[in-house]
Amino acid sequence: MKTPLVRATLIMLLLAPLAKADIAVIVSAKSSAGNLTADQVSQIFLGKSNSFPGGGQAVPVDQSEGAGPREEFYTKVTGKSAAQVKAYWSKLIFSGKGQPPKEIGNDGAVKKLIADNPNMIGYIDKGAVDSSVKVVLSQ
């Protein structure tokens, strides 16, 4: 009786990584920004660049700690965990060399803010994308 339960649990554990949602890095549909590379997005979100490659100010918007896409975004785009990024920003804040991106609740809040501001860039679950925003990187 326990064997099918153990087998089902093992299958679910093996498939869990495949269940993660895709992340879309977005800008306003009104923005002139084109497609970006993961490195370009990483530079913006780690405070190493404050402009889009074609020009124009780039203001990153982060999702709140614990929001679903946050860990996946940082892992895929910066190669760091959300905890490593938090430690990175703590050092910069302590030394007075930078401030982390503004945190906004979840996919819906980020999408609404980004849609109204052509200089902002953020990330949401790919399934939450609509015509108010433009995808510049899909992970």
From TrEMBL:
InterPro entries: PBP_domain. Residues 1-21 form the signal peptide. Coiled coil: none annotated. Keywords: Signal. Pfam families: PBP_like_2 (PF12849). The keyword NADP does not apply. SUPFAM superfamilies: Periplasmic binding protein-like II. The keyword Ligase does not apply. Residues 17-127 form the PBP domain. This is ABC-type phosphate transport system substrate-binding protein. The lineage of its organism: Bacteria, Pseudomonadati, Pseudomonadota, Betaproteobacteria, Chitinivorax.
